[in-house]
């Protein structure tokens, strides 16, 4: 319950956070561009492009082509959106484990494994959002995203059985993975 309130609060804070980030962070060598152009440049597929645009809209970014921001602002927004999504999934998993008595033992083992996978993924996405991007030193960004993505992939792979893919958590994990991939690709616009 308390956690749910925190999540709600975080969701409300997204637009405020991005504006603050944009105002506070001005990494001098990072290009400025429109949000649509950033998604276009970063994303190779329509699926990823559409998700990128959705993440921007949810973060209350001004989408008009004439409005530009440093690419850092988009990268931080995407990392933040990914972090919130991870938290939401982790809560859903932990709720299932503690409250759903009809979980099979296979499901239980998979969800517990996923909780272990999400811990390092969560810690790395927080580091990216709060330290790596705001510091304007992007040297370790790619390695940090690799840690995020490989750990969420580990969880996805645990759920890749005919019964587990039908679990309500599977689409949430896939959505997390896609968000992390978009955030990683936006991070590559910063030119490390
Ligand atoms: C959060 O999780 C719930 C299920 O617990 C899901 O229905 C909802 O779409 C999720 N929200 C986000 C923003 O991922
Ligand atoms: C409990 O787990 C079962 C098996 O995965 C699932 O079908 C059901 O929707 C879950 N119940 C709730 C309340 O989430």
Attribute tags:
Butyryl-CoA Dehydrogenase, subunit A, domain 3; Pectinesterase inhibitor domain-containing protein; mainly alpha; two-stranded antiparallel sheet; binds 2-acetamido-2-deoxy-beta-D-glucopyranose; signal; 192 residues; Invertase/methylesterase_inhib; 2% strand; 2 strands; single chain; 7 helices
Description:
The protein is mainly α. 35% of the residues are buried. It has 7 helices and 2 strands; from the N terminus they run H-E-H-H-E-H-H-H-H. It has a single domain (2-188), classed as Invertase/pectin methylesterase inhibitor family protein (Butyryl-CoA Dehydrogenase, subunit A, domain 3, Up-down Bundle). The protein has helices at residues 2-24, 35-42, 46-58, 71-99, 105-132, 141-158, 169-187; strands spanning 32-33, 69-70. A two-stranded antiparallel ribbon has the order 1-2. Helix 4 (71-99) runs antiparallel to helix 5 and helix 4 packs antiparallel against helix 7. The protein binds 2-acetamido-2-deoxy-beta-D-glucopyranose (NAG) (2 copies). One 2-acetamido-2-deoxy-beta-D-glucopyranose (NAG) is lined by residues 100, 102-103, 107, 167-168. Residues 1-23 form the signal peptide. It comes from Triticum aestivum. InterPro entries: Invertase/methylesterase_inhib. Keywords: Signal. This is Pectinesterase inhibitor domain-containing protein.
């Amino acid at each position: 319950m308390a956690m749910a309130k925190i999540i709600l609060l975080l969701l409300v804070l997204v637009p405020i956070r991005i504006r603050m980030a944009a105002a506070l962070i001005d990494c001098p060598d990072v290009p400025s561009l429109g949000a649509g152009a950033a998604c276009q440049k970063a994303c190779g597929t329509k699926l990823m492009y559409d998700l990128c645009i959705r993440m921007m809209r949810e973060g209350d970014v001004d989408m008009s082509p004439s409005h530009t921001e440093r690419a850092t602002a988009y990268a931080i927004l995407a990392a933040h959106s990914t972090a919130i999504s991870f938290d939401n999934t982790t809560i859903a998993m932990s709720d299932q484990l503690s409250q759903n008595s009809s979980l099979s033992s296979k499901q239980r083992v998979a969800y517990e494994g996923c909780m272990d996978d999400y811990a390092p993924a969560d810690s790395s996405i927080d580091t990216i959002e709060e330290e790596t991007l705001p510091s304007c030193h992007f040297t370790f960004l790619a390695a940090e995203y690799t840690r995020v993505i490989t750990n969420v992939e580990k969880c996805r792979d645990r759920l890749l059985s005919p019964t587990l893919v039908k679990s309500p958590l599977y689409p949430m994990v896939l959505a997390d993975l896609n968000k992390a991939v978009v955030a990683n690709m936006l991070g590559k616009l910063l030119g490390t």
